[in-house]
Amino acid sequence: MKAIYIICLIVLANATQGIDYFHMLATKDYGKTVIQALQLELQQGSADQVVGTLRGLLKDSENELGAIKGNLKNRQAQCLVHQSDAKSVIERANYKAAEDLTKLPLKKEESDAKNKQVEDKQGEEQRNNDKIVVISNSRKAQRALFEERRDELVGLVATLNEAKAIIEGKKSSFLQKNIQSVLDNFAESYPNQRGLVLMAQILMKSANKQLEQGAIEKLVGIIGSLVESIYDVQKEELLVDDQREQDFQNQKAQLENANVYLAAASATLHAQSLTLQQQILELSNDIKSNQQLSAVKTKELQDWNKTCYDEEKGLRSIYDGKYLSIKKQIKSWRNSSTQ
What we know:
By secondary structure, this protein is mainly alpha-helical. Helix content is 92%, strand content 0%.
């Protein structure tokens, strides 16, 4: 019987396995024998020794409970670190996403404004190009009229000079005999010159009359005056056309210079617009990344919360179960010792 008692004490003295073994005694045949032996020892006046043994077992159990409690605290500390890290990341990600969401519409508004400025500059440049086409076509038309008028005056001078030479160099009898051929030559040489044929006809018909030498000289002088007047008209019209050409070139140069400025401004604005579009893309990507990071960390935090709660609950259950069980067994043995 003493051997059984000693075996029981040795088993119960094991701090780590004693508690579980103690709970198991009542369910095993040899456990019942041990319990009966303990009861017998108690009946023989060994209660203090048994209680002392059980108190030693309780102390060992409390040490084990302390280890469980320390493990619980360590695990709680780890959970707090992980939870704090996750919360910190979530807060930073949410703050950055909110900040970028505030910046995004402003950047889009700025980008739209830049694009509108580019459109305005390009529209103004196109209008200047249209103006250049208009004034160029107008100048071509003016130049064509001037050249037509110049050719007409040149032809008129040539006609008058030829008529003058005929009158000066030929006698009336020659003119009278060759008047038709002279008129035909004029009409063939200057078919499109307004008034030239008519003037030639007048000059030639005047030769049909018996003109005195003084009258011929007077007629030649009139023709010379007409030629001089035509030269003056040519000079005046040439000056006018030169001024028109200068005005055209100045206006064209102004429009072309304006377009150079507009093209440079459009290029600058377009580059700024591209920069803003890149910033908008980066902001959008940052917002998406931070939102995804926040979602991942939120899920991670939820997992940590659940894991830590379950582990704490399990450890507390083990701690409370073991502690209460030992207390109950001590009380039971004490009661048994008094019977």
